[in-house]
Amino acid sequence: xxxxxxxxxxxxxxxxxxxxxxxxxxxxxxxxxxxxxxxxxxxxxxxxxxxxxxxxxxxxxxxxxxxxxxxxxxxxxxxxxxxxxxxxxxxxxxxxxxxxxxxxxxxxxxxxxxxxxxxxxxxxxxxxxxxxxxxxxxxxxxxxxxxxxxxxxxxxxxxxxxxxxxxxxxxxxxxxxxxxxxxxxxxxxxxxxxxxxxxxxxxxxxxxxxxxxxxxxxxxxxxxxxxxxxxxxxxxxxxxxxxxxxxxxxxxxxxxxxxxxxxxxxxxxxxxxxxxxxxxxxxxxxxxxxxxxxxxxxxxxxxxxxxxxxxxxxxxxxxxxxxxxxxxxxxxxxxxxxxxxxxxxxxxxxxxxxxxxxxxxxxxxxxxxxxxxxxxxxxxxxxxxxxxxxxxxxxxxxxxxxxxxxxxxxxxxxxxxxxxxxxxxxxxxxxxxxxxxxxxxxxxxxxxxxxxxxxxxxxxxxxxxxxxxxxxxxxxxxxxxxxxxxxxxxxxxxxxxxxxxxxxxxxxxxxxxxxxxxxxxxxxxxxxxxxxxxxxxxxxxxxxxxxxxxxxxxxxxxxxxxxxxxxxxxxxxxxxxxxxxxxxxxxxxxxxxxxxxxxxxxxxxxxxxxxxxxxxxxxxxxxxxxxxxxxxxxxxxxxxxxxxxxxxxxxxxxxxxxxxxxxxxxxxxxxxxxxxxxxxxxxxxxxxxxxxxxxxxxxxxxxxxx
Length: 706
What we know:
alpha+beta, 11% strand, single chain, 4-stranded mixed sheet, Immunoglobulin-like, 5-stranded antiparallel sheet
């Protein structure tokens, strides 16, 4: 009888413990008090950030200097491209949809617009506001769950929310102590174009948290969560895989170092599975394009200086690691310090020593702000703990007072920049709409901010408009530079020579109208070195507020041309000013003795061309080449080839009237990448479902047997 009473008492005590705590099976359990305080901190962070930026959720803003129109265009015009290979004809002379940009933010924008029935512009703002509010929350969750110190973790998230320490270390402009309080994160999201980047930073703390749990516990749930977090971060921004790899290196350095080989294999396996899920948006061809494009702009070139930079980083790492272990034996604090050091080294070395080992090093200031917050606050905690109790109270009060003052200042800033604006009054909207209504079927060249916003308003097909960091056609990039600058880096060309160079490129790519923004225009970037170079040379089609649309003299606006094969461009122009390879090609385009070819788009993935060609003539199509395009002429398959400008050409082998059909299916690489993504995603979903079923059946069986 006593035994039964003892067992019953133990059962009641066990049940009480289970009701009052829960655990990740990694250390001490979570008390109700800790969970309640952490929940309160998280809600406070959401409320404070939402209070600052609440206009995001109600207003359509119109900062035309941003790339917001770029993301909105993707959300509005992608259609079924999220689920199958398709062609994007709107930018850069045509590109595969997968080469436009990381898809997560545009996809979320399209989803919200469809579910809520709102405009894509408002939906994009809602997504921007959500990620702005969630960034400090996910940072708080990571720091809290790693350190089990909710109060200090809340301080780190507050510090991240309302300060900008990077402006003291690597200022955007001139140095100033007051810039510590700059509203940089809100400015970059609301006024500039970093919503995808910030979305990645929202997911980064979760990826770090789950990776650390996977290494420490090797449980399936943590491994699967790591894969999901890394996949989503990668789909948000191309910075995601790089930053997560750096975080993984720091984790491998501080966690279970005696088992480093198995840890390395585990992390590599997680990374490989995450890539498989994202493969459709990170195929090898796209990665090659990113490397080439960033190198072309001088922001991704790997040289001897890059090796020196890595050596400097490694030397600093060795010194930090030696003294870091004397400061603390807690691995989370060691990780925070190593990660902050590694991230900070990227923009600091680039700014002060002009050395880099990663492209676009200045863009890592956003990661730097997130990484510094835990280091600064936990470092301050070390000193605060040594203070007398009265000092501690006053320091905490001072911190909260400064936070309150900063919230008020940021709220004032947000009210000014997030006001509703009528986009129809902008020069970007008016120019784009005029082009759509008056230049149907004509490829247009639009400048700067007009190009970035045009396809959020219309379906015009542009010679530019895309992201330079992912440009698939190097010739198109050089042509765009030449049209703006004449091909000379120091802009010393005369306007006449500049115009002549630009015209060759415009004709070679079938651009029927070029738009120039003058120095007094509302267009933000004003990229033309000589905005008056076409005056008196080209007919004016439309002009308003110092923005002028000129007609480019083409024999036909069609993008298809019957030519002798000898007229093809056989090599890539070596520089923007190298127009010699295009002379014969441009001359043949204007030859009235050659047959005309009519080109019609049927959707975005099919082109129909009607012409009359002799057996020895070729068909040049001024659409960027991709192995996903396939051609038939008279019902017979024809091989599509790439010329020196990265455009398509083929031999129709016709004698007289001929119909040529071009269809796009992505090509084997993109189709294979889609299959890899589908199989990996299905495997993850099925494994989660199977594990969940086992977890549900297990307790049921125990209950039945009992």
